[in-house]
Design a protein that fits this description.
Oligomer: single chain
Shape: globular
Structural class: mainly alpha
Distance between the termini: 49 Å
Strand content: under 5%
Mean pLDDT: 81
InterPro entries: TPR-like_helical_dom_sf (IPR011990)
Largest sheet: none
Number of strands: 0
Organism: Streptomyces pulveraceus
Low-confidence stretches: 86-143
Number of helices: 21
Radius of gyration: 23 Å
Region (Disordered): 86-106
Order of helices and strands: HHHHHHHHHHHHHHHHHHHHH
Protein name: Tetratricopeptide repeat protein
Helix content: 55-70%
Length: 447
């Protein structure tokens, strides 16, 4: 709700011109991709800016807006000086921090999210924002459930994804489960009387279930992950939400592949493709085709795997579009290469797998710390199985460089498998040095 006294931002409204708020939001997202930023801009955000509710954008949006309108300042765009909004000292353009890194305390969004999640504030934030209070509190007042609560669910999804990209899942899973319960409590209350609000609440709760399911998946809690993905799929079916259904099937396929059920992986990926077909997102179809390829590789079906990979490349080559789901920001060329590497690895073509894994690591945005560690772990494994043990050891050192910042049971398990392959080659100096360092990294430190 816009606060009393908000002054409409007419300058920003003029910049939008004849475009709808949704069309302008899409242009903002495209501009963000051009400079490697990630912003979840939609028509509601544009409306909040134009109404004056957002008096000054955060640093990520600032970079995007200044990229869209070269030569302008925030004042030219109708925004208030930052120091008058947040009580901070004024900054020149040179002072604006670079895109976020793990330890960038000056980057506003990253800093806020770290403090929320890493100090066990997740529960308090979710309960307070969703109007639920502590776990023992009474159910929310139905009259209070609306835009604020739906926005809180959507924000929780984005927070989880961002922190997972930076830190991995192990430290987040337990804390992220309470916002999920809060979201489903809102659904069960039947408090959202408007159809549009109810649809967004279903979609937000389903996406939150998938995000929490992924945290369980990445931290080795496979049965929990299976349950959360099934919950999201059921929510999608109840709401008739094809986009949520496709996402749930995508993750279900991924989990089935990781837990040795390749036939189920193929079936889930095919179901996801059927759900995604009318959504108009080639990138989503590409990802689902790669999920299918992974399952077929697990079955030893080389021909079927190659066909699915071919479809994935064709769809991916059509480029991004406005219909691409927000959760797919991770799916860039680096991820395409990684998923193909895993297919060739499953088929035993180690050298070919290593080529794709190396390319994935080279292409990956360093801000996605968890995925960079994952890609380099895959490279270590493939090189070790290909008999290129010195190269494998070098890649393994790069993984260890990152594991101090990434907590992922899945990645550590993959690295342990590569280590097991390298142990018989301990006589090689590079291998011995890596194995010794890996052992030291596993040993508990004195308290």
């Amino acid at each position: 709700m816009v606060s009393t006294g908000a002054v409409p931002n007419l300058a920003f409204r003029r910049l939008r011109g004849q475009r709808s708020a949704g069309e302008f939001a899409a242009a903002v997202r495209r501009s963000a991709r051009e400079i490697g930023e990630q912003v979840a801009c939609d028509a509601r955000y544009i409306g909040r800016v134009e109404s004056g509710e957002i008096r000054c954008p955060n640093y990520a949006y600032e970079r995007v807006f200044l990229h869209m309108f070269p030569g302008t300042t925030l004042a030219d765009l109708g925004f208030s000086p930052r120091e008058t909004v947040r009580g901070r000292g004024a900054r020149t353009p040179a002072d604006i921090p670079p895109p976020p890194t793990l330890h960038s305390d000056t980057y506003e969004e990253s800093d806020v999210l770290r403090r929320v999640f890493m100090t066990s504030g997740t529960t308090a934030m979710a309960a307070a924002t969703l109007g639920l209070g502590p776990p023992s509190a009474a159910p929310p007042d139905p009259r209070r459930v609306g835009e604020t609560e739906v926005r809180a669910v959507e924000k929780a999804v984005r927070q989880i994804r961002l922190l997972d990209d930076r830190h991995g899942a192990d430290g987040l899973y337990r804390r992220a489960s309470r916002p999920l319960r809060a979201a489903y409590a809102l659904l069960d209350s039947g408090a959202a009387t408007r159809r549009s609000t109810a649809d967004r609440l279903h979609a937000g709760a389903g996406e939150l279930a998938i995000s929490v399911g992924w945290l369980a998946h990445d931290s080795g809690r496979f049965e929990d992950a299976r349950s959360h993905y099934a919950e999201a799929l059921a929510t999608a079916r109840v709401a008739g939400d094809a986009a949520l259904e496709a996402h749930a099937f995508c993750n279900t396929s991924f989990l089935a592949r990781d837990t040795g059920r390749p036939r189920e992986s193929v079936r889930a990926a095919e179901a996801g493709q059927r759900a995604a077909q009318p959504l108009g997102s080639p990138r989503l179809l590409a990802l689902l085709a790669l999920r299918e390829a992974g399952g077929r590789a697990g079955l030893g079906d080389r021909t079927g795997c190659e066909r699915a990979i071919g479809r994935a490349h064709t769809a991916f080559g059509r480029g991004p579009c406005d219909a691409d789901p927000e959760w797919m920001t991770f799916f860039r060329e680096a991820e395409l290469e990684m998923l193909e590497a895993q297919c060739w690895s499953a088929l035993g073509d180690w050298s070919r797998a290593a080529r794709h894994a190396r390319r994935a690591a080279r292409l990956q945005d360093p801000h996605f710390t968890r995925n960079l560690a994952l890609y380099r772990t895959e490279l270590t494994w493939d090189l070790a199985r290909a008999g290129r043990v010195a190269e494998a050891a070098a890649a393994g050192h790069q993984v260890l460089d990152l594991l101090g910042r990434v907590r992922s049971t899945r990645i550590r398990g993959m690295l342990a498998e590569a280590v097991a392959v390298l142990v018989p080659q301990r006589c090689v100096t590079e291998v011995r040095d890596f194995l010794d360092r890996h052992t030291e990294a596993r040993e508990p430190t004195a308290s």
